[in-house]
Amino acid sequence: MLSSTAAPSSLQAFSGQSVSAGRPRPHPADLALVHVIHIEQGRDQAGQFVLFVFATDTWAGELTNAEPDKHLAAQWITADRLPEPAFPTSAQALAAYRNGGPVFSRYGWSVTAAR
Fold first, then answer.
1. Whole-angstrom Cα distance, residue 77 to residue 19?
2. What sign does the dihedral 76-82-87-88 (CA atoms) show?
3. What is the pLDDT at residue 1?
4. Alpha-carbon gap, residue 14 to 10, rounded angstroms
5. Which of 74, 54, 63, 66 has its CA nearest to residue 9?
6. Which residues, in sequence order, are CB contacts of 112 under 8 Å at separation 6+?
7. pLDDT tens, 94-112?
8. How many domains does the chain have?
9. Element housing 97 (H / E)
10. Considering the chain, what is the average pLDDT of its residues?
């Protein structure tokens, strides 16, 4: 999960988490879908998936790493200072969101596969 306390809103990415896994929890009415990435291959090499990225500036609960087998850490960060190394897809989604860029992108696909 990415989140920014410096930007006007927080960015949260949920990829395949159960509904109860992600904390803190924004109210669904406060979420705005800001980016979708079609990923060719995940870190676990289990195949392609789609990452939906939502922005919100309102939430309740405490930030916890609910899936430590999948994520190194869960932490609040400023939008302009991603930790290194950052997941390329997280950096791509955050850059598109902050720059008013496209709401859809691909990651890991060859040029011929994208046609």
1. 23
2. positive
3. 37
4. 13
5. 54
6. none
7. 888 889 888 899 988 876 6
8. 1
9. helix 88-98
10. 74
pLDDT less than 50: residues of the chain: 1-20
Residue 75 lies in a domain: yes
User: What DSSP line would sit under 28-71, residue for residue?
Assistant: GGG-EEEEEEEESS-TT----EEEEEEEES--BS----S-TTT-
According to the model, what pLDDT value does residue 112 have?
A: 63
Rounded CA-CA distance 49/27 in Å is 25
Q: Would you say residue 24 lies in a domain?
A: yes
Report pTM: 0.62
CB 54 within 8 A of CB 46: no
Residue 93 lies in a domain: yes
Q: With beta carbons less than 8 A apart as the criterion, state whether 26 and 59 touch.
A: yes
Q: Is residue 95 part of a domain?
A: yes
End-to-end alpha carbon distance in the chain: 30
Domain of residue 23: give its range.
Answer: 10-107
